């Protein structure tokens, strides 16, 4: 189903991304009378930017695909994606902003003052970033193959090149306004076709989807080997706790002027994401109406893109498909560039810059190391996305969340709320959680159907790996009270004192 | 794909290679060790221990530092115990026989007054405990600037000339380490003094010119005069504040804004300002008064010595993990050699701000974060610097 309009939409989105990345700051206003106060990012704008960066291929195509494939249980997925921000709001948003940390390794170092933990955190950020980038590339190749008939490697390759260029040129991620617009573009691109399709469905007499009970009865197993309750709870837990450990989320919190702004931003993000996630279930249900079973050789992730031309022929169908394809590409590009930017920053700062400086005696311009890092940050996940078994977009993203939940979630929660966390405890927690989650993920990716409980437990490691890491961190911390960092009390006071109080105190001497 | 790789084989191959590599590494290591003679090895071990001890002496002679360094000093001297004292009391005791701790101070008196190494034998050191190995003490002075700052005492069983010599040498080495620590402290104090100077260095011309400009508005435009006076008050409050050495870029730019409003009242149309600030970098922590002196330089060089309008551009960009701030003017520029001279620390006549900002940035963030100045005669000046968005231990207002 080659479609010139869709191709045009994809090309347009790619070119816009490149143009914005290349132009960079030149877009911002040039004024001769200026007010710094008026230039801070408002929570609402920042929230749109977070939404724009957060809604990825998994949200745009994968969620609908999973619900179509596995039934109403998967409606928990969007709930979990949104819940993650609630947890973030309640537990970490404001203290995190006050810590002044810019990345997760920064936070680890600010809280625990240990280089070793910083290095392990950096490695984990790279790991999570790669794992999250893989489905973006897979989604891109899926979309491009579907709308143009291009070979499977092409779509991911296009996204990889665009991202490498955009990040290397200075990073489009840095522009809050652009990411904020991305959210509204994605919402429109998903909402308009959804409402048109709903209207068409009504006009054709609103037929019910033909499904078997395992699809529409909650928590009913599709096969005897299936453990839907465990699976669902584990996924929701991974999404809840994983959000705070995603490398590209924390960066945006730094843009908030203070802790209160951070909390306001989070509330708005929850509203925006909630609105967006109303749409994928519509596509999934309509998909079941149009295709009671999937045609051979068709992945469920493409269901969103296939629907318009099934419901309506001719130009309207093509236009709607083009809209969805463009929106999907916008989703790949914005999430992937945010992630690639974070990963690039970490690779550059932790790995490349010190080594380059040693080789060249400090003569290497900073920007070259950054560009090398950008290429590394997209090339490795691209190669992995070609090698790895296509697990389904939302599933792979779920694994990235699980890794984040098993490693950074305990570190952040204990780091923010527990004074007796010791450096050894934090390290042990990171290592145990990371090994458990990564081991499960690798096994799931490499080995075929494990089946039964073993398969279920390894495919959804968050449920056991997170408590395990948390317990390890607590027990080791209690066993090594001598390793509690010296400045802990001071750090905790700074994390938890509202800015207004600090302000009032600093004014006293005047 | 999966048919291509037989996993058990792959695992075995990888494991074998790892083991081989480990074996080769261990072999090389042991061989490298094998070329060392006993004397060499002892020398290197001593040097290594000394470098370990010196890490702890970086903050000067404190009880904590003495405690930590004492362990390494003990292993260098090979005595039964080592104690460090200053004129006020015994700072640390490392080793056995701590009941002699109180004696350490009185034994040090002779050394403190004479400045010489003294060996005390059993006649002076009495001990009720027959198993106590401490029978002799060698006390050597820690000298700084010809003053005895404290004493190092090695406690052992038998007096020996070797131990006396070694104690004296180690004490001299500790003295030099303490001198280095003192040097570092002095450097910090100089920086602080320079910051205070910079704070007090609001140019008298600026005060005079601002007040004159405000006065000229009092009759014609009282509202503007009032606003300008408020700006002036806020500017001086910020410039003379008694806070920490850091602030946010937003605060610093707000102060620059007030400064420029006052300069614009004076220059009117002659001064044009462009500001391009990425909102993302506003919360970044910067050293206090890092931007304002540079802007003042730009206004002075961009306008004062030139006919017609002058243009000053202030840019703050997001550069991944750093924020990049640059100040550009289209004024007369200056000789690059002169700027190099100023940045090297020589006292420039009118650009104290430039050298000071550069030195502070380097001190806080490291040498790769200094000022970058692009200039030539008649070609304007552009001053750029970067600050990392996050640096451990640095917070605005702390």
Through-space gap between termini of chain B: 57 Å
Class derived from helix and strand content of chain A: mainly alpha
Radius of gyration over C-alpha positions of chain B, nearest whole angstrom: 32 Å
Summed up, the helix count of chain A is 22
Summed up, the domain count of chain B is 2
The proportion of residues forming helix of chain B, as a percent range, comes to 40-55%
Provide the CATH superfamily of chain A: Sodium/glucose cotransporter
CATH topology of chain A: Sodium/glucose cotransporter
Give the CATH architecture of the largest domain in chain B. 2-Layer Sandwich
Secondary structure class of chain B reads alpha+beta
Gyration radius of chain A, rounded: 23 Å
Overall pLDDT metric of chain B: 81
Q: How much strand content do the residues of chain B show? A: 15-25%
- The dominant shape of chain B is extended
Number of domains of chain A: 1
Overall, the morphology of chain A is: globular
Helix content of chain A: over 70%
Q: Number of helical segments of chain B? A: 11
The CATH architecture of chain A can be given as Up-down Bundle
The poorly predicted ranges of chain B are none
């Amino acid at each position: 189903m080659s479609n010139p309009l869709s191709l045009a939409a994809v090309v347009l989105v790619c070119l816009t991304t490149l143009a914005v990345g290349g132009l960079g700051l030149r877009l911002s206003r040039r004024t001769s009378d200026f007010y710094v106060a008026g230039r801070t990012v408002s929570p609402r704008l920042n929230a749109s930017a977070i939404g724009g960066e957060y809604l990825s291929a998994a949200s745009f195509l994968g969620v609908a695909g999973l619900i179509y494939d596995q039934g109403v249980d998967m409606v928990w997925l969007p709930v979990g994606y949104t819940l993650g921000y609630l947890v973030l709001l309640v537990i970490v948003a404001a203290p995190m902003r006050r810590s002044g940390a810019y990345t997760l390794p920064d936070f680890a170092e600010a809280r625990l003052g240990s280089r070793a933990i910083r290095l392990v955190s950096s490695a984990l950020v790279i790991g999570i970033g790669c794992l999250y980038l893989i489905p973006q590339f897979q989604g891109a190749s899926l979309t491009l193959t579907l709308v143009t008939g291009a070979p499977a490697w092409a779509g991911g390759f296009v996204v990889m090149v665009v991202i490498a260029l955009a990040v290397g040129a200075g990073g489009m991620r840095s522009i809050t306004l652009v990411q904020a617009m991305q959210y509204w573009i994605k919402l429109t691109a998903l909402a308009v076709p959804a409402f048109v399709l709903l209207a068409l469905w009504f006009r054709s007499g609103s037929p019910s989807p033909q499904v078997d009970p395992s699809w529409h009865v909650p928590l009913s197993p599709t096969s005897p080997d299936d453990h839907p309750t465990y699976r669902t709870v584990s996924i929701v837990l991974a999404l809840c706790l994983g959000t705070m450990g995603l490398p590209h989320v924390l960066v945006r919190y730094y843009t908030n002027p203070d802790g209160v702004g951070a909390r306001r931003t989070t509330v708005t993000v929850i509203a925006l994401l909630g609105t967006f996630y109303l749409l994928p279930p519509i596509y999934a249900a309509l998909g079941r109406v149009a295709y009671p079973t999937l045609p051979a050789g068709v992945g469920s992730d493409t269901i969103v893109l296939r629907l318009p031309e099934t419901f309506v022929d001719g130009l309207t169908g093509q236009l709607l498909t083009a809209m969805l394809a463009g929106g999907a590409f916008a989703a790949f590009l914005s999430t992937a560039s945010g992630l690639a930017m974070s990963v690039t920053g970490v690779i550059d700062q932790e790995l490349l810059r010190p080594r380059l400086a040693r080789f060249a005696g400090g003569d290497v311009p900073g920007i070259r190391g950054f560009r090398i890092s950008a290429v590394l940050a997209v090339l490795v996940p691209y190669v992995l996305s070609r090698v790895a078994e296509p697990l389904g977009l939302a599933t792979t993203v779920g694994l990235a969340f699980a890794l984040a939940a098993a490693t950074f979630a305990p570190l952040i929660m204990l780091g923010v709320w527990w004074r007796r966390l010791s450096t050894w405890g934090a390290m042990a927690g990171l290592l145990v959680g990371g090994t458990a989650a990564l081991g499960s993920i690798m096994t799931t990716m490499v080995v075929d159907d494990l089946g039964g409980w073993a398969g279920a437990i390894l495919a959804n490691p968050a449920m056991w790996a997170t408590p395990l890491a948390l317990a390890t961190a607590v027990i080791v911390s209690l066993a090594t009270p001598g390793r509690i960092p010296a400045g802990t009390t001071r750090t905790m006071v700074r994390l938890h004192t509202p800015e207004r109080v600090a302000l009032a105190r600093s004014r006293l001497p005047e | 794909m999966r048919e291509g790789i037989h996993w058990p084989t792959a695992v075995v191959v990888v494991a074998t290679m790892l083991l081989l590599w480990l074996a080769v590494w261990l072999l090389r290591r042991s061989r490298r060790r094998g070329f060392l003679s006993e004397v060499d090895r002892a020398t290197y071990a001593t040097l290594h221990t000394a470098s370990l001890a010196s890490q702890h002496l970086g903050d000067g002679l404190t009880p904590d530092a003495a405690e930590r360094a004492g362990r390494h000093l003990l292993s260098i001297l090979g005595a039964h115990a080592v104690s460090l004292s200053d004129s006020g009391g015994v700072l640390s005791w490392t080793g056995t026989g701590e009941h002699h701790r109180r004696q350490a101070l009185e034994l040090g008196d002779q050394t403190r007054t004479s400045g010489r190494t003294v060996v005390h034998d059993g006649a002076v050191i009495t001990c009720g405990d027959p198993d106590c190995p401490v029978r002799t003490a060698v006390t050597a002075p820690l000298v700084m600037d010809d003053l005895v700052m404290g004493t190092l005492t090695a406690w052992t069983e038998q007096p020996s000339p070797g131990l006396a010599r070694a104690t004296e040498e180690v004490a001299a080495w500790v003295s030099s380490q303490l001198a280095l620590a003192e040097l570092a402290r002095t450097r910090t104090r100089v920086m602080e003094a320079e910051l205070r100077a910079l704070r007090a260095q609001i140019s008298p011309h600026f005060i005079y010119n601002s007040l004159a400009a405000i006065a000229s508005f009092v009759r014609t435009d009282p509202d503007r005069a009032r606003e300008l006076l408020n700006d002036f008050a806020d500017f001086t409050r910020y410039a003379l504040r008694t806070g920490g050495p850091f602030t946010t870029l937003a605060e610093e730019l707000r102060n620059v804004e007030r400064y420029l409003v006052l300069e614009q009242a004076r220059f009117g149309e002659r001064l044009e300002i462009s500001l391009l600030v990425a909102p993302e970098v506003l919360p970044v922590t910067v050293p206090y008064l890092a931007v304002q002196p540079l802007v003042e330089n730009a206004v002075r060089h961009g306008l004062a010595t030139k006919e017609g309008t002058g243009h000053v551009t202030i840019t703050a960009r997001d550069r991944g993990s750093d924020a990049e701030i640059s100040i550009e003017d289209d004024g007369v520029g200056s000789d690059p050699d002169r700027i190099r001279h100023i940045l090297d620390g020589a006292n420039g006549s009118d650009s104290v701000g430039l050298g000071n900002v550069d030195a502070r940035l380097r001190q806080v963030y490291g040498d790769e974060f200094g000022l970058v100045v692009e200039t030539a005669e008649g070609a304007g000046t552009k001053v750029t610097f970067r600050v990392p968005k996050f640096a451990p231990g640095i917070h605005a207002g702390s």
